[in-house]
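Example 3.2
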Amino acid sequence: MDRRLLFAIGLMLLVAILPSVLWPPERPVVAPADSATAVPESATGPVPVEQRAPAMPPALVPVTPQEQPVRQPGTQPPPDSTPERRVLVESELYRLEFSTRGARLVGTTLRPYRAISPSDSGPAQLLPPDTRFLAYAFVAAGDTLHLADWPFTPDRERVTVGAGGAELRWVGQWNGREARLTYRFRPETYRFEVEGEIAGRPEGFVTIGLGPRLRSIDGDTVADIRSYGIVTKARRTERVDFRSIDPGEVREFAGPFEWVAIKSKYFVAAVLALEADGPRLGGARATGGPKPGKYETHVDVTATLPAADGRFRHSVYVGPQEYRRLKELGHDLEDVNPYGWIFRPIIRPFANFIVLILLWMHETLSLGYGWVLILFGLLVRGLLWPLNQKAMRSSTAMQVVQPEVKAIQDRYQGRKDPKDAQRMQQEIMAVYKEHGVNPLGGCLPMLLPMPVLFALFFVFANTIEFRGVPFLWLPDLSRPDPIYVIPLLMGASMFALTWIGQRGLPANPQAKMMMYVMPPMFTFLFLNFSSGLNLYYAVSNIASLPQQWLISKERRKKLGDRKPPKPPKG
């Protein structure tokens, strides 16, 4: 039973974890690119009357992902006498930079976080130089106004967000047209509100730029870039990885959506339409951009929003993927990183629950996360002690009756009559009943820690609270141990646990082989997993050693006192 259980656990880990590491899922839910509701591709100039755009299409106007937009015939650049300037908005949480060219957000610095990439160790700056975030275009019947190209005048050059919040108002004018934008900020959140109005109040819709990416500011640059994706929320969240979109490829995402976001491993930039009585985002479009490296990918992402009477309103979130912060915003924004692969419906709630426990322990006990993990591993093993005790004793009972079971199996060996196989099973079950043995009693309790282990795998791979957190010699609990001490300790503790568990049992070559195969296999598998996960697993194994030793001692006594059974007659 122990041998089969160890083999089952190993297979579960390989099947559940390894595929999600090697082949992350791609589950796009998209509308056809040639949808009848798509906006014409030549949207940089006036749209012919016969191609007038609907008020709320799922597609949107593509915008060239460059710092200085490429303008097509039919549009004129803003006058050179209006140079671009930067307007600063600052709070204790963030430092935002807006450009007077289009009132676009061109810089976002998160004060509580730092870049930990090999080339950057300063404050966490999320937006790259070629950002088109909050690049607006207003599409009405017969015309497209590229507000992102307009010169806007702010009501002030610097804004400090105090306890009561703050506003920044913009007025943009071009060719006799006027647009007004108002941004409202609050000090306690990375979210801010946007209100817009087009003079004359024409009926139409607005497109909002989100691309082409976020900056990679993490130590594992490859893992960060591979996490780039577009996430949308309709009835449920759906993610499409950037790397699945080829250069020049256009994908349409049919709404309506509550929010549309682009993400990296730990950060997210989202446009949200969350008001209960307000319109939803009509759809989204992703246009594949260049791929400058093996992993790096640029994707121009835009979303549409209805603008009844030339007015529109939405929210913006540019910040960390903090579970509690996103949970407060509602609408499943905390699910912007929908991890868990095929086990997502089970893993995600369980992982969120574990995160809340770890955060509570960290804040309540004022302990570093490394010590929190050690304490958490001890608590889990303590809570499971009675169940493990029952499982181990059930395993011992199985070993006690194993000679009788083996004698019955030998007696029926070679018989091909199905009735003989049925009688053999009945006799074996009678032996189990006589000795009060449950043949499955040792399996389920020993499998209970596995959901915790699976959940922690995703917790350490995706939870920003563990990003860059050191412990002893470990520079980052979310990344592998650079000198492999923790995974080796985990493998050694697993070997010791297995070795003690086999003491007092009859010699079994297969069980002995598993004892020498499984720990090295798990060690190799866990070498490149996060050091926090390895730390938890090692502590859990070490905490199980005393109980395993006590049960082994008890088993040796029972098996030693028991006389071998006589072979059944017949």
